[in-house]
Amino acid sequence: MTDESQHERESMEYDVVIVGGGPAGLSAAIRLKQINPEISVVVLEKGSEIGAHILSGAVLDTSGLDRLIPDWKEKGAPVSTEVTDDNFYILGESGQVRVPNWPMPPLMSNHGKYIVSMGNVCRWLAEQAEALEVEVFPGMAASQVVWDGDRVKGVVAGEMGLNPDGTPGPQYEPGMELHGKYVFIAEGVRGSLAKEIMAKLNLSDGHEPQKFGLGMKEIWEVDPEKFQKGRVVHTMGWPLGKNAGGGSFIYHLENNQVLVGFVVHLNYQNPYLSPYSEFQRVKHHPMLAELLEGGKRVAYGARAITEGGWQSIPQMSFDGGLLLGCSAGLVNVPRIKGNHNAMLSGIEAAEAAAAALAEGREGDRLDNYDDAVRGGAIGKDLKRVRNVKPIWSRWGLFPSLALGGFDMWVANVTGWNPLGTWKHGKTDAAATGKAADFQPIDYPRPDGKLSFDRLTNVSFSFTNHEENQPCHLKLKDPSIPIAVNLPEYAEPAQRYCPAAVYEVVEEAGEAKFVINFQNCVHCKTCDIKDPSQNINWTTPQGGDGPNYPNM
After folding, report:
1. How is the cofactor bound (predicted)?
2. Are the beta carbons of 177 and 195 closer than 8 angstroms?
3. Which ranges constitute the DSSP H helices of 190-328?
4. Which CATH number covers residue 245?
């Protein structure tokens, strides 16, 4: 902790403070200025630049962009690769079966959507925001909430130069307090400020626990003869089988670049499962191997995904602010899409705040935002698919395809879900089983051509953390990894982390838990999946972390 009597923070006042320079935060900033150019708006981004921490599939449903900037094509948005070919396969170890498109509900179709780099889309959105005189500050990690009783008054951002023990170092900068009449939290999945606000104000009470997946992604340059611009492929089945839900995606973007990714639902039981190793294994399937052989991996990253959907959306408004986008959990799981809802939430947030500011209000609860999200396009999108995830979690892949598909079809036609609303039940952490009930999984060694070890791949995320700072991965009780998690769960942090942050090593005949925080790609999986809920992910100093070029 810093001594604030010696390091007084300056403060700046804004009408709206936005934490997070992703699609939700930037859309909110743009819409506020569209409504009233006199509204003062600041966007704080913890990455070294806008887009540096953005990782998404991504096939973009442009409904949010259409509403925000209808002439986006004329303005040069980096949204140009329209989906031309939409395929879904169920994989076996050595073959595959294609599921025809005709039995799928229309909402599942990707035709008319665009394959994009969301990092580049966000960079373009930031340009549009700055043209409207939004202040955009990258490299400014918002590390603390500024409270006024139970009202969120602002955030602390830009604190730099702490020693590893948390004391101010010689280059210490205390950061600034940025106060807003309203504060928008748009940090993305499992953000540290959103987590604090939700816990203090009990925003999840009466709602299902949030569910998550881990998404890992590589960008490949492939043989031009194998490249098919606009082609979209999704797979399920092998190698996960009954071990976990999830599957792969393969998107042919442009310039012979293919986006190859893998999602593992984090409610898996077997603590020996390694999501990263499953991702590396799927690339050896004949269908993927044929595409990637002779190609070159040029980037890697990982990020958690919210999967709870309709049932898990918390109360999104609170005194002084709002939760936007993935901070609220607005991803449509079967469609594997959330960027459109993130943008729509930013628009709804801006319109609610702008109306309040026009009435001379500040710091109150904008509950009409909750109403707009739940009763508008976002709610319609999420309600129709709300049972797919819990059916899959309870009964597996094929029942979810049949029952979930039936439920989606009826909801798509009538707006009514015949299966009602299924519950999610346990958190992903609580779903983790005891090691004694499972066998270790013998994963093949990476071959260095199609599959890679974690440390090698992390170097392709261009991750960097200043080493002389406090570890941003906080253990509530430092004894738990060895005393509890190792004997009971074989310490799964060694395996669920896709960046090799956590290790159990032997020193002087005793096991020791090691945190290599420099490797962290900010995916938040540890905060979500640790069975003892002992790891608290917090922000490192601003600008640190991955530097994704065009994820």
Report:
1. Binds 1 [4Fe-4S] cluster.
2. no
3. 192-201, 275-282, 286-292
4. 3.30.9.90
Query: What does the alpha-carbon distance between residue 517 and residue 182 come to, in Å, rounded to a whole number?
Result: 33
Mean pLDDT, rounded, for 78-86: 97
Quickly tell me which residue has 């989606």 as its tokens: 408
Q: How many domains does the chain have?
A: 3
- Residue of 371, 382, 368 whose CA lies nearest to 311: 382
55 and 148 inside one domain: yes
Nearest to 337 by CA among 315, 313, 307: 307
d(CA 318, CA 551): 32
**Which of 477-513 are b and which e, b meaning 16 or more Cβ less than 10 Å from the residue's Cβ?**
eeebbeeebbebbbbbbbbbbbbbbbebeeeeeeeeb
Q: What is the mean pLDDT of the chain?
A: 96
Say if residue 179 is in the same domain as residue 65: yes
- Residue type, position 141, single letter: A
- Residue 288 sits in the same domain as residue 323: no
Under 8 Å between Cβ of 233 and 253: no
Tell me the three state secondary structure of residue 391: helix
Distance CA 425, CA 445 (A): 36
Residue type, 85: D
For residue 277, give both structure tokens.
Answer: 């190793």
Is 403 contained in some domain? no
In a domain, 4, yes or no: no
- Per DSSP bridges, beta strands 212-221 and 473-475 are unpaired
The answer to whether residues 166 and 67 belong to one domain is yes
Residue 76: left (phi > 0), alpha (psi -120 to 50), or beta?
Answer: left
> pLDDT confidence of 132, banded at 50, 70, 90?
very high
Backbone dihedral region of 463: left (phi > 0), alpha (psi from -120 to 50 degrees) or beta?
A: beta
Pair 168, 161: CB distance under 8 Å: yes
Q: How far apart are CA 377 and CA 64, in angstroms?
A: 10
Q: Tell me what pLDDT residue 409 has.
A: 86
Contact (Cβ atoms closer than 8 angstroms) between residue 162 and residue 168? yes
Q: What does the alpha-carbon distance between residue 543 and residue 522 come to, in Å, rounded to a whole number? A: 12
- Of the chain, the percentage scoring pLDDT greater than 90 comes to 93
Within this chain, do residues 349 and 486 fall inside the same structural domain, yes or no? no
Task: Indicate if 134 and 186 belong to the same structural domain.
Answer: yes
The CATH number of residue 509's host domain is 3.30.70.20
Task: State whether 155 and 270 are in the same domain.
Answer: no
Evaluate if residue 456 carries a pLDDT over 80: yes
Give the pTM.
0.97
Give the pLDDT confidence of 351-369 residue by residue, as tens digits. 999 999 999 999 999 999 9
State the residue range of the domain holding 266.
81-114+210-306
How far is the first Cα of the chain from the last one, in angstroms, to the nearest whole number? 35
